Amino acid sequence: MSNAFAQKVPSVMKTSFSKEALAQKITDTDGKTTTISKILEKHKGKVLVIDLWASWCRDCLNAMPKAKELEEKNTNIDFVFLSLDRNFEAWKKGLEKHNMQNKENYWFNEGWKNNFNNYIDLNWIPRYLVINQKSEIAKYYAITPEDPEIQKTIDELSK
């Protein structure tokens, strides 16, 4: 079976989130539940990069060094990591294994098919979104941290 359709670029580049996407519940590393809306509220006023990944995802792991470089180059912006690991224990082990415990991490306990991921047309990971200071989507679709549009968007928003 081919993944020829896995990385199909969405036909509509969304600039805001639906109520359902914002209400999506996710779990933090302490096992407490929050929502996408509360995470965006926490980072309002800042540029935010959302990194969707999983510890079982080879493409995600291969992208990690470049994602780390992006983070180190942009110390003035916030990064949030949303995991699609299959269970809480695997996610926590993955955070440790890949030295990500000190980052802001959340896990989709409902799995891949949830209101947030459906809304953003998630069909492949890793996936990166850049969120502006008003919690709007500034860069909707990037599948590598090396996508020059990510840095260009960050630079434009940081002026």
From TrEMBL:
Which gene carries the instructions for this protein?
A: tlpA
Q: Which UniProt keywords apply?
A: Cytochrome c-type biogenesis, Disulfide bond, Redox-active center
Q: Where in the cell is it found?
A: Cell envelope
Q: Which InterPro entries match?
A: Thioredoxin-like_fold, Thioredoxin-like_sf, Thioredoxin_domain, Thioredoxin_ResA/DsbE_sf
Major place of residence:
other
Q: Does the keyword Amino-acid biosynthesis apply?
A: no
- State the species of origin: Cloacibacterium rupense
Name of this protein: Alkyl hydroperoxide reductase
Q: Which stretches make up the Thioredoxin domain?
A: 15-159
What superkingdom does the record give? Bacteria
